Structure formats: structure tokens, C-alpha cells
Amino acid sequence: MKKTKDIQAFLQTIDFSKFILKRVWHEKAGKKYICIKLFITLVNTIIPLVYSIIPGLIVNELLDGAYSDVLIVYVAILSLSPVLLTFLNNILDSLLYKLRLDLELIFAIQFQKYIMIMDYETIENPDIQIKKDRAQITIDNTIVLIDKYVGFFASIIKIIVIFSIIATLNIGIVALIMILLCINSLLTKKVNQKMHQIGLELSKHDRGLWGIIYMLEQPCYAKEIRLFNLSTLLTGEYGKRMKAKNKLEIRQFKIGRKIGIYGALGNFVQQVLVYSYAISSVLAGKLALGSMTIYIGMISQFSGSIKSLFDGYLNIAKDNYNIQELKDFLNIPCVQYRSGDKTPSFDKDSIIEFRNVSFKYPGSNNYALKDFNLTIRGNEKLCIVGCNGAGKSTFIKLLARLYMVDKGEILLNGTNINEYDYTEYQRLFAPVFQDYVRYYFSLGTNIVLASQFDKDKLDRICQECGLTDLVNKLPKGYDTQVDKFIDEEGFEPSGGEDQRIAIARACYKGGEIYLLDEPTAAIDPMAEYEIYTQFNNMTKNKCAILITHRLSTVQLADKVAVFDNGSVVEYGTHKELYEKGGMYTEMFDKQAQFYRDEKTSES
Ligand code: ADP
Ligand code: MG
User: Fold this and answer.
1) E strand or H helix that includes residue 62
2) Which listed ligand is nearest to 521 at the C-alpha?
3) Number of Cβ atoms within 10 Å of the Cβ of 573
4) Is the pTM above the cut of 0.90?
5) Mutation test of ligand 1: which of 393, 397, 434, 546 has the most ligand atoms closer than 8 Å to its C-beta?
6) What is the residue with the minimal CA distance to atom 1 of ligand 1?
7) 3-state SS class at 511
8) Ligand 1 centre from 392 Cα, in Å?
9) What are the strands of the beta sheet with 429-432, ordered from one edge?
10) What span, in angstroms and rounded, lies between the C-alpha atoms of 107 and 126?
11) What are the φ/ψ torsions at residue 145 (nearest 5 degrees)?
12) Are 474 and 517 in contact, with CB atoms under 8 Å apart?
């Protein structure tokens, strides 16, 4: 049972090594790296053997008592080869270093690209974030792994060479050394398993610590940290988590020390055995003095090589857990990205239809949308109103295919949206999400989201979104860094400015369907009215879905849908709904009242 487990682990190690080697070999730089590394490692492995053979040969020559020209050749090899080897190592190491950096960049970008095509639903899951961090370890270590494989291969070659020399002396000694090493390696393997288990726990602690450091670094937390006086809470929590982590690290350290002790004991037994046998053979006249030094040198290298072969294997096998984690991570299905391949088209006659859609967020027991039905036309401006938690943002996220519906279907021109190519489908949208973000780039890049931009178009859009004054006021204009996170001279946008930037971003991208999820909550009603009027002009004949709490904006829309508890409870034009005297009328009147009260109190 145990045996099969070990064999399975061995097969898995081979399988995983192939997986990593294939990934590296697939890259041009990877092929070069593997070949050069293999060559230099073999040279560095075999040369020390020559160093331990030649002195013995010199002794044997000298014991013969006569001068021989061979002595000069031996001395030349011994004195010149280290210099040549140093030169060779120097040249190839810098080449390998460059290739290594190139490869690390290639793998980092591949990984980042993969993360960006993962389903939104997956990425949102905190467990997946931990998996991502774990997978990243192998990505960052890919070249270290290659070095290990090459080192392992070189050890095999070295052992074959040494074995063929020692076997001529005494095969029994070889067998004894092997037994000692096997015992040692089994013990080491157990220790390694424990170390890995602790490593897994440590990475969970790292994530907890990272959460606190993140809160300390982000300016958005800085205000509340001060006003709520969170210093004691945060440092206390940090200390608690750090102490728990340190405890584990000490355990890991202590366990690691054990490996050294096993090694030293094994070495002791082996030295006693080898020297007793070799000395007695010389005394019995069975072995020349020079040959004795060669054999002793070889045996100590043999045990060293067998040990490094075992260690190398265990070291490689130790990474199995991490490689498995990377494989699992790369195997997480990207359902959305790899779904349909139809090309969507959208114009004023297009129709979007939600048909009996029900949806629960992953891990939630409650429906965010339930038996939901709604139709939107291609040139329509639809306004969605409703209380918090009514399902408005969820509706937008489902339409944008950030999640997949549980029941029912969403159709675009009669075709289920999942049948369209994901990237092409998302190209249709110009979104401003409720939790819009700011990018750690310049203001211009924040809007354009590309490194090059069309200045005239950008100027026009900034004008329409009320950003021109801000751009003119900033010392470096569009080139000013947004946020002080990276650049001290960056500027910190106000909530309203942030929202205008997010709206400008959607307008610059453009698309057939504009999605605006309460993008003006932090902008005053007058400015909002201005933005929406401009927005209406910009999106003539386009489809726009606006979620707003400001009922004054609603009057600009063609149709209004009132959401409640995950369904549409009222639908029609502003006039129709207002005259109906239902939920909409109540909401509208309450807000009108609020504005009247505000005006009265102002006057
Ligand atoms: P609205 O935008 O109308 O305020 P949402 O669509 O954001 O409402 O939310 C609808 C329901 O889904 C709410 O009950 C909310 O708590 C829940 N919800 C929203 N986002 C998530 C999420 N990421 N995970 C779990 N539940 C969520
Ligand atoms: Mg919302």
C-alpha cells in the first residue's frame, strides 16, 4: 500500500517534471536555457572527478620512482582546467542570467493574461485568490525547477561514471553506502512532507497579514483609520497574526535542522567503513597508495552524488504539491471565455431579452434575481430604479456576462448570449460600474486605457464629462498620475471627479450598449443633469441602461423599470408609471418632496 503510494508519487514527479519542462521548452529562450544549463552543469559535475583521480595517479607515478612526461600532462590539467572552467562559467552564467530574466517575464505575463480571462465569478472567490498566490509560487520558481531537473540529470551521469570506477574495487562497499543513503533519504522525505504542510499553513497567514498591510497602504482606509482610531485594532491584529505565523516558522526551522543531523550520522558510519577497508587493503599490499586515495576520493564523491541524487529527487518531489496547485489553477474552467464563437451584432433594431432569469450569487441562498423578465430595444434609454439590494447591479452584471444565470436565459437578437464569443460580446458594452475603479496610471491613460491616445477625442470627451477644468488645473495635464500611490505628485480625485473619469472612460471606449450603474451618486444634481444631457447627445440611437436614484434623470429615459426583490414590478414610461400611482409614484413624490424641502431650507 505504502509502496504503491511511493511509486505513484514517483510517477507523478516524472509527470510534473515533464509538464514544467514542456512549458519551458515551448519557448525559444527556454530551449536555449535548458541546453546551455545542461552543458555547463555536466562540465562542472565531471571536472571534480578528474581532480580527485589525477593526484592519485601522480602518487602512483612517483612511487614507481622514474620521471615520466605524463606527470607534466597531469600537472597541466590540474592547474589549467580551473582557470578555463572559471572563464567558461563566467561567460555562460551571464548568458543564462539574461535568458532566465527573459523567461521569468514571459511566464509572468502568461500568468497575468490567464488571470484576466478567468471567469469573474471565479476571481471574486477568496479561496481562488489563495490558490492564485500558491500557483504564482511555481510560476516564479519555474527556472529554479529547471535547474533542479538539470542538476538531477547531471547527478545520474556522475554516478554512472563513479560507479564504473569503484565497482572495480569492491562492490560490497558500494552496497553498504547505498543502504545508508536510502535510510537517510527516507527520513529526509518525511521531514520534507511536514515542512510542506507547514508551508501551506504559512501561506494562509501571509494572506491575512497582507490584508492588514493593504489597508495601511491604501489612502481610502487612511481617513477611517484616523477617525475611528484603528491603530490599536490593526496593530493588535497584525501582531496576533504575525505571532501565529512566527510560531509555525520556528516549527519549520526546527524540523529543517533534523535533516542536517541525519546527514551527519550517516556520514560518520560511512567514513569509518571506507577508511577501515581502504587502509587494511593497503597494509595487506592489495592496493597501491595512489589508488587508495583515488578510491577514497571516488567513494566520498559517490556517496555525495547518490545523496545529491536522492536529495535532488526529494527536492523535486517536494515541489509536486506546488506544481499540482499550479496545474489545478490552470485547469479551473474559464467557462465564459471559452464559450460560444458567434459574432454578435447590435443596432437600433436589436433586442435584449431576459427570459425567466433566476440567479443566486455563488455561496448565497437567496435569489438576487427571481423569474426575472425584461426586454430592451437597441435604441432605447432604459432607466432602472429600485431600493438597495433590489437586484439592479446584478442585472447589469448578468447582462455583461460577469456571471452566468442559474435558470432562464438572456437573449440578444434571439440567441443566448453565451453562444457569442466572449470578447466580441463584451466589446458591445461601455460600462460604468457602481464600484468603478481608478487605475494607477496617468489621468489620460485612466480614460483612454491605452498608452497612445487620440488627443482631440479625449479633449472632446473631457469637455462633455466636465473634466476640462480639472485637466487644465493639473500641472502635467493628462500626464498627471492619478492617486498618490505611485507618484507623490499625483492627484487625488474627489468622489465626483472619480465618477466623471469613469464616465469619460466609458464614453471614450464607446460601444453599442452603455451601462451606467449609479455613476453620479457623488455628483451634485445640477452637474448630473448637465452630464446626462451631454450623455444623451453622445448616445443618440444607442442603447443605454441607467441605474439612478435621482428621479430627475429618469425623465430623460424612454422607459423606466422599477425593481423590487429581484424582479421588475413596474415598467413603462415615466408618465405612465407616475400616473399609475404605485411604487414609482411614491418614490418620485418622496424625492420631489426632498428637493422642495431642500429648496425651502436653503431660501
Ligand atoms: P442593487 O444594485 O439593486 O442595490 P444588487 O444587485 O447589488 O442590488 O444586489 C442584489 C442582492 O444580491 C442583494 O441582496 C445583495 O446583498 C446580493 N449581492 C450582491 N452582490 C453580491 C455578491 N458579490 N455576493 C453575494 N451576494 C451579493
Ligand atoms: Mg447596485
Assistant:
1) helix 28-63
2) 2
3) 14
4) no
5) 393
6) 389
7) coil
8) 8
9) 429-432, 513-517, 543-547, 381-386, 559-564, 567-572
10) 23
11) -65, -45
12) no
Element (H, E) at 369: strand 367-377
The answer for residues whose C-beta is within 8 angstroms of residue 228's C-beta and 6 or more apart is none
The ligand whose atoms approach the alpha carbon of 121 most closely is 1
State in Å: Cα 546 to ligand 1 middle.
Answer: 17
SS3 assignment, position 225: helix
Residue 565 burial (CB count, 10 A):
15
Closest Cα to atom 15, ligand 1: which residue? 389
Hey, what's the cell of 310?
536522492
What ligand has the least distance to the C-alpha of 567? Answer: 1
Spell out the residues 6+ positions from residue 160 whose beta carbon is closer than 8 angstroms to its own: none
Instruction: Report the SS3 class of residue 355.
Output: strand
| CA dist., res. 340 & res. 332, Å (int) | 18
CB-based contact 122:135 (threshold 8 Å): no
Residue 247 has pLDDT above 70, yes or no: yes
- CA 405 to ligand 1 centroid distance, Å: 14
Q: Please name the residue whose Cα sits nearest to atom 5 of ligand 1.
A: 391
Ligand 1 atom with least separation from CA of 388 = 4
CB within 5 A of ion ligand 2: which residues?
A: 392-393, 434
Q: Which atom of ligand 1 is nearest to the CA of 397?
A: 6
Q: What is the rounded distance in angstroms from the CA atom of residue 330 to the CA atom of residue 22? A: 15
**What φ, ψ does residue 517 adopt, rounded to 5°?**
-100, 95
Q: How many CA atoms lie within 13 A of 278 on its CB side?
A: 21
- SS3 for 119? coil
Q: What's the CA-to-centroid distance between 394 and ligand 2, angstroms?
A: 7
At 190, the amino acid letter reads K
Q: How far apart are CA 498 and CA 463, in angstroms?
A: 15
Strand partners, 559: 382
- Nearest protein Cα to ligand 1, atom 24: 361
pLDDT tens per residue across span 354-375: 999 999 998 899 999 999 999 9
Contact 256, 194 (CB under 8 A): no
Best mutation site among 123, 124, 361, 396 for ligand 1 pocket (most ligand atoms within 8 Å of CB) = 361
Residue 161 is which amino acid? V
Residue nearest atom 26 in ligand 1 by C-alpha distance:
361
* Three-class SS of 32-49: HHHHHHHHHHHHHHHHHH
Contact 446, 501 (CB under 8 A): yes
The β-bridge partners of 355 are 409
- φ, ψ (nearest 5 deg) of residue 406: -85, -40
User: Minimal CA–CA distance to 51: which of 288, 279, 289, 301?
Assistant: 301
Q: What is the pLDDT of residue 1?
A: 52
Give the contacts of 87 (CB within 8 A, at least 6 positions apart): none
From residue 311, give the alpha-carbon distance in Å to each of 14, 185, 314, 578: 15, 7, 5, 78
Average pLDDT value over all residues in the chain = 87
Among protein residues, the one with the nearest Cα to ligand 1's atom 13 is: 389
Report the pocket of ligand 1 as residue ranges, CB < 6 Å. 361, 364, 368, 386, 388-394
How many residues does this entry show for the chain?
603
Q: In whole angstroms, give the CA distance from residue 557 to residue 516.
A: 13
* Residue at grid coordinates 476640462: 468
Mean pLDDT score, 447-464 = 90
For residue 112, how many other CB atoms are within 10 A of its CB?
10
Specify the range with the lowest mean pLDDT, choosing from 171-185, 410-424, 539-553. 171-185
C-alpha cell recorded at residue 119: 471567469
